[in-house]
């Protein structure tokens, strides 16, 4: 990464983001290392939050970092299915996906993928689509019969991602994959992002969510947790319900080559920049 002049930083950084002096300290930290960012929840349906997210990715790209986006789209899929009179059924947080549902899910995710790429291009940040129809990189097997077309990733084509990154573009990955017969499967976006982060040996996996991070019994943010504290928090039900598989997925990633996994609040302005480029961070860091 070439040094960036202060006058260029003034042009690139937002007024309400980390200070220039802070950013300077962190510019070398992620030199030539992948940062996988999973985006979901209200960030993808709230117009203001979506555009702040897009701004942050474009800024990282201009600073010379290597962001890789994995996006969800569950709320949009649910809305589209509802429009078409199809009931959404979930088992342990995963959508049961039959023939009609996988068709709708694929259409919605591909369309949304295109929107993200176009929004980045509007910010003078080149990006490339990775979906089940274009540049598919994920091979899957069926997770179980009960869930239908829900896939578990088994293999990733790193060449496609590396080729995109080498041209200074941002890979934008939909959580879709193909099995050995070319059948499309939906993948839980956290699972897809974790799998991709491990295979890329990423420096960071950032999970953007609708919560501050992991909270204690008094609803105060816990800045950092590890395998030992996670077990305690699950045992005393501080971490419960749908947060358990999310945290266990994060811990698995942190235990397999990714230096840090963090859950951050996507509802806060420039939370990605504060997490990567400031002292205070903006969520819960999960380490092995």
Task: Summarize the structure in short.
With 288 residues, the chain is of the alpha/beta class. It has 10 helices and 14 strands. Strand 6 (138-142) and strand 7 form a beta hairpin.
Describe what you observe in this structure.
This protein is α/β, with parallel strands linked by helices. The chain has a single domain (about 30-285), classed as Carbamate kinase (3-Layer(aba) Sandwich), CATH 3.40.1160. Helix content is about 40%, strand content about 20%. The protein has ten helices and 14 strands. The strands form four sheets. Strands 5-8-2-1-11-13-14-12 form an eight-stranded mixed beta sheet, sandwiched between helices. A two-stranded antiparallel sheet has the order 3-4. β3 and β4 form a beta hairpin. α7 (about 190-200) runs parallel beside α9. The chain is globular, with a radius of gyration of 18 Å. The two termini are about 30 Å apart. The relative contact order is 0.16.
Secondary structural class:
alpha/beta
The CATH topology, please? Carbamate kinase
Are there runs of 5+ residues with pLDDT below 50, and where?
none
Write down the overall geometry: globular
What is the ordering of alpha helices and beta strands?
HHEHEHEEHEEEHEEEHEEHHEHE
User: CATH architecture, please?
Assistant: 3-Layer(aba) Sandwich
The name of the CATH superfamily reads Acetylglutamate kinase-like
Q: Provide the CATH top-level class.
A: Alpha Beta
Radius of gyration over C-alpha positions, nearest whole angstrom: 18 Å
The profile of the biggest β sheet is: 8 strands, mixed
**DSSP summary, beta strand count:** 14
Strand content: 15-25%
- Average pLDDT taken over every residue: 92
Helical residues, percent: 25-40%
Within the largest sheet, what's the order of strands?
Answer: 5-8-2-1-11-13-14-12
How far the N terminus sits from the C terminus, by CA atoms, comes to 29 Å
**Total number of domains:** 1
Helix segment tally: 10
């Amino acid at each position: 990464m070439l040094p960036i002049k202060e006058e260029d930083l003034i042009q690139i950084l937002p007024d309400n983001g980390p200070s220039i002096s802070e950013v300077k300290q962190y510019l070398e930290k992620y030199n030539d290392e992948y940062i996988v960012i999973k985006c979901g929840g209200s960030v993808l349906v709230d117009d203001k939050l979506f555009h702040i997210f897009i701004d942050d990715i474009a800024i990282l790209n201009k600073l010379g970092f290597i962001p890789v986006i994995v996006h969800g789209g569950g709320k949009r899929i649910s809305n589209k299915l509802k429009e078409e009179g199809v009931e959404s059924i979930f088992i342990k947080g995963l959508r049961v996906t039959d023939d009609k549902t996988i068709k709708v899910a694929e259409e919605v995710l591909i369309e949304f993928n295109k929107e993200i790429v176009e929004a980045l291009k509007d910010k003078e940040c080149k990006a490339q689509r990775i979906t089940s129809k274009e540049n598919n990189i994920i091979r899957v097997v069926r997770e179980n019969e009960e869930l239908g077309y829900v896939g578990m990733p088994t293999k990733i084509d790193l060449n496609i991602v590396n080729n995109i990154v080498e041209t200074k573009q941002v890979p934008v990955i939909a959580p879709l994959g193909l099995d050995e017969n070319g059948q499309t499967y939906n993948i839980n976006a956290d699972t897809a992002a974790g799998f991709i982060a491990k295979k890329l040996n990423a420096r960071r996996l950032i999970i953007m969510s609708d919560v501050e991070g992991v909270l204690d019994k008094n609803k105060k943010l816990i800045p950092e947790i590890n395998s030992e504290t996670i077990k305690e928090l699950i045992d005393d039900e501080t971490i419960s319900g749908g947060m358990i598989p999310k945290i266990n997925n994060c811990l698995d990633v942190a235990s397999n080559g990714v230096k840090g996994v963090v859950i951050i609040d996507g509802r806060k302005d420039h939370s990605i920049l504060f997490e990567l480029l400031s002292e205070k961070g903006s969520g819960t860091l999960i380490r092995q």
